[in-house]
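Q: I have 334 residues here and want to know how they pack in 3D. Can you give me a structure?
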Amino acid sequence: MTPPGENSRDSASQEDNKRAAVARAWVLRLSSGEDTEADRLAFAEWLAASDDNKRAYEKAQSIWEALGDVDGIENLLLHRDSVTEFRPRNSMTRRFLVGGAMAASLAVATGIGFLLMQPAPTETLLYATATGEIETITLSDGSTVTLGGASELTGEFTPDGRTLELVSGNAYFDIARDEARPLTVHTGDVNVRVLGTRFDIKTRTDFVAVAVDHGHVRVTSPATGSRQDLTAGEKIVSDATHGLSQVMTFDASQELSWRSGRLSFVDAPLRYIVADMNQYSDRPIRLSPTAPADLRLTLSFPVDQIEQVLAGLDAAYPVAIESREDDILITQGD
């Protein structure tokens, strides 16, 4: 029979251990030199949540500061798997003297072990590009994401998983493989789950397209319950009405050319072309109600030549281009 109060004591002990683990993880993160503004805001919120959090952090911080007096600590932290012993400085020995130098070494080693083995706190991600900007971002797990113009990416990395959301625009993902932490990208009505691979996602008001450059991804549409696995060279499109389309192949030189600042389209509706142009155009491009939005075109051009391309369309197709001070209007031509 469990003694009265034993369960509550166990629960309190578990909470203390969890709090100490979080505190040690915060010490490591904030001492790394790689902490972000989001990290600092999250830490301040956690610290202010309770006096217990403050005490746990102060204890973890005192251990970390003590480690700074250890000869060769940088080497120890960088090569901890190959280091079997180290000598504390005299000041370190005085600080931790409990029963001789061995006790001091054990105290410090224990502090290092606790600090190094703790999972990192939740990492909040937020990246956005301006119109006309293409940017490649390196994430904390070694993955890279290239964002197209006027695109936004948010996410959260924890010890157990990696989650991203492509809020708008398009992105090319080169994901570092981590079987213990699969990565999921949410966008629109589509989830893309991977272990480690390279793929492209494009979001528009009425569809989402996923194209796999290397490896394997799983695409699901929670609204319809449909699911499809894709491998390199395969693409799928999803919309709110029909869910996932049939798998199709694609030309990577066309589909992924935006990463080098070039937009390419094969038999694409004018409305889709205009949507892509608007990620890079200095002035918004608008389709009037009379414009042939479904006119299908095959085009390829650098993103800094959009106005020249529009002028060419005016001459070759039944569209009229009106260049105004604040925008560019496309209407039905002769």
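Q: Anything worth noting?
A: The domain at 123-253 is CATH 2.60.120.1440 (Jelly Rolls). The chain has a mean pLDDT of 81.
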